[in-house]
């Protein structure tokens, strides 16, 4: 940056300042010759770029576009493209997108498949979010008690948009109100904290058309009133709303839900509704807040309902389920994880006709439900039994998550008839999660035997963190032949003998795509198992073998595994193995990578070494 400025650079500098000043002559900038105009854009700070773009002569008025012969439609398009390129560069330089970096290395033709991004829109959306976050921090640190719109934005954020050390040019943009009013219309997706939810927020965000809103830490009536204004203003666009860490008595839940669907709302706008890590304070008096009940009944477009980690009890869960069933809901994802809802479905067993054993027709279904997440709900044997009856109402379920429930062997045994029946249906179960369900080797082996014999095999099974011991080896090996594509047996205590027994059983080609065998203390036998598995699983893409006590001596085997994988394996996690202590392990293994594949994760006692697939 220490080069001698050229005449053009000086010109650009002068124009830039004029643009930042918004001195009324902006339309004339469009009369600049294209060479200068096009070179100007990449040098403008965001605020100037915005000023210039706002002053763009409208397409219908001929004054500027067509006064100049060189501005043919193709040129016009080019001009829009140049703005877009400038916004993209600004976005990337401010929030360098680390996780997406690899995309930049892809060949041109692949990159064209990137979804079309409106960089100007996401630039200001994210800037506004940064301003809101900074304002929230300011308010909580300084106990500021004026108007929210008057909170001053830190210089660091202002410099991003004006590049100026001297911010006295225009005082208007020092305050949050300026940013909300000017850039609010670009916000589709915002996160609000409790301090934002004041009466004024509706006015500040009056121009935005939000599609996704995340709300944190609200608990008072005033906050809910402020929020409800925003909800009402965005009734035509707001598709997803998520509450996190909120304390909401039933009356407030009702107020929120009513602003989402009463008052002439389109009932099909809201798609995702979520309350997480929150509490419905008086749930024993109002197990299901009336407003929520009517929202669930009315919102015909609702596809995902998440009520997770809300100290919810069985009665609320029951009423949610019954409401959805009664209204013939089109819900696709129901997540009730991390509550305490044992007993929630008992009426399906005791109250209604025994549906599995009779021909009686049922006329209500959750016909669209694909994913049911009941993880960590203290569900036990009896719940598995009742679930079996309730499952009939969910004919299209594909993903069932029962992890972290003390179901034990008995619970699974009771549930097995459902799995068998389900595999004969049009839509069989594809993914089953039973991690940490207190299964024993016997119970898990029985389950795997049934699953192996199903008409349509499961695609994915997760039974990690159950104490299955090394005796589980043979069952595991046999099950691998069943056609399973993804398997998690993390931390089941396989040990050396478990791995070698499993290896013995691998006699045919496997359909396996990903497997997690981490935390199993398999030692050198883990490597032998891997070697056998790789040779029989042509589609294998991902292996997690971390924390298995694999010693230095397993290195030759691992090398031959990599050689056999011929670059088809994409991920291999070898962290927390003694093997990693070898000094030059990373470079030794790197020799077997083809086009950077697989990604090999290693750890060392000093620092963890990571081989990325695009390591330059
Ligand atoms: C900031 O800019 C104003 C006018 O644009 C000028 O009067 C003032 O001296 C500048 N301050 C500094 C510290 O450069
Ligand atoms: C709703 O949530 C699902 C995940 O549950 C997500 O895939 C989808 O994009 C979300 N829809 C909207 C409109 O935000
Ligand atoms: C199910 O639970 C497991 C943890 O056992 C979690 O990793 C997974 O994301 C969950 N899946 C679904 C679809 O809820
Ligand atoms: C198991 O390993 C896979 C990668 O192979 C990973 O995606 C998954 O999160 C792991 N599961 C657990 C429970 O750690
Ligand atoms: C492999 O599994 C371990 C848990 O055993 C987990 O911590 C790690 O994140 C997994 N690795 C990958 C790449 O998912």
UniProtKB/TrEMBL annotation:
Pfam families: LRR_6. Gene3D superfamilies: Ribonuclease Inhibitor. This is Leucine-rich repeat, ribonuclease inhibitor subtype. SUPFAM superfamilies: RNI-like. The lineage of its organism: Eukaryota, Viridiplantae, Streptophyta, Embryophyta, Tracheophyta. InterPro entries: Leu-rich_rpt, LRR_dom_sf.
């Amino acid at each position: 940056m220490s080069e001698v400025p050229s005449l053009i650079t000086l010109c650009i500098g002068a124009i830039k300042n004029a643009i930042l000043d918004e001195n009324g002559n902006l339309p004339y900038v469009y009369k600049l010759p294209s060479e200068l105009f096009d070179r100007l854009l990449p040098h403008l700070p965001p605020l100037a770029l915005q000023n210039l773009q706002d002053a763009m002569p409208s397409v219908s008025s001929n004054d500027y576009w067509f006064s100049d012969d060189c501005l043919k439609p193709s040129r016009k398009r080019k001009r829009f493209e140049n703005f877009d390129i400038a916004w993209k560069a600004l976005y990337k330089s401010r929030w360098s997108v680390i996780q997406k970096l690899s995309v930049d290395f892809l060949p041109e033709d692949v990159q064209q498949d990137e979804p079309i991004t409106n960089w100007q829109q996401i630039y200001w959306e994210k800037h506004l979010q940064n301003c809101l976050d900074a304002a929230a921090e300011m308010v909580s640190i300084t106990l500021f008690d004026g108007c929210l719109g008057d909170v001053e934005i830190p210089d660091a954020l202002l410099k991003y948009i004006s590049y100026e050390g001297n911010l006295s040019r225009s005082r208007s943009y020092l305050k949050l109100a300026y940013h909300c009013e000017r850039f609010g219309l670009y916000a589709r997706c915002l996160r609000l904290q409790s301090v934002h939810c004041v009466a004024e927020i509706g006015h500040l965000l009056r121009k935005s058309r939000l599609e996704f809103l995340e709300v944190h830490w609200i608990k008072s009536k005033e906050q809910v009133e402020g929020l409800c204004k925003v909800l009402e203003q965005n009734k035509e666009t707001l598709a997803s709303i998520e509450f996190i860490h909120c304390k909401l008595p039933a009356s407030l839940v009702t107020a929120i839900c009513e602003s989402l669907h009463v008052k002439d709302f389109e009932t099909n706008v809201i798609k995702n509704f979520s309350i997480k890590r929150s509490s419905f304070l008086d749930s024993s008096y109002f197990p299901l807040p009336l407003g929520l009940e009517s929202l669930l009944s009315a919102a015909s477009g609702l596809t995902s309902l998440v009520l997770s980690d809300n100290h919810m009890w069985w009665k609320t869960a029951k009423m949610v389920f019954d409401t959805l069933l009664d209204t013939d809901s089109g819900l696709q994802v129901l997540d009730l994880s991390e509550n305490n809802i044992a007993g929630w479905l008992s009426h399906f067993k005791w109250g209604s006709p025994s549906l599995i054993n009779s021909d009686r027709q049922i006329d209500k279904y959750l016909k669209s439900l694909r994913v049911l997440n009941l993880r960590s709900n203290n569900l036990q044997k009896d719940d598995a039994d009742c679930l079996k009856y309730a499952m009939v109402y969910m004919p299209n379920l594909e993903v069932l998550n029962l992890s972290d429930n003390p179901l034990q062997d008995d619970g699974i045994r009771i549930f097995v008839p459902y799995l068998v029946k389900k595999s004969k249906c049009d839509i069989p179960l594809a993914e089953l999660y039973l991690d940490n369900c207190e299964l024993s080797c016997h119970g898990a082996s029985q389950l795997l035997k049934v699953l192996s014999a199903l008409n349509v095999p499961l695609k994915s099974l997760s039974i990690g963190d159950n104490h299955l011991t090394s005796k589980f080896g043979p069952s595991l090996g046999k099950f691998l032949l069943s056609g399973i594509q993804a398997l998690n047996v993390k931390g089941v205590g396989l040990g050396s003998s478990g791995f070698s027994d499993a290896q013995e059983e691998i006699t045919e080609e496997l359909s396996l795509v990903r497997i997690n065998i981490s935390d199993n203390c398999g030692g050198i036998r883990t490597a032998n198992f891997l070697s056998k598995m790789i040779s029989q699983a042509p589609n294998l893409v991902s292996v997690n073998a971390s924390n298995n006590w694999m010693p230095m001596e397993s290195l030759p085997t691992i090398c031959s595994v990599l050689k056999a994988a011929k670059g088809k394996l994409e991920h291999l996690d070898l962290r927390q193995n003694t093997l990693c202590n070898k000094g030059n392990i990373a470079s030794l293994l790197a020799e077997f990578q083809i086009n950077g594949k697989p990604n090999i994760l290693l750890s060392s006692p000093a620092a963890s070494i990571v081989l990325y697939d695009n390591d330059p």
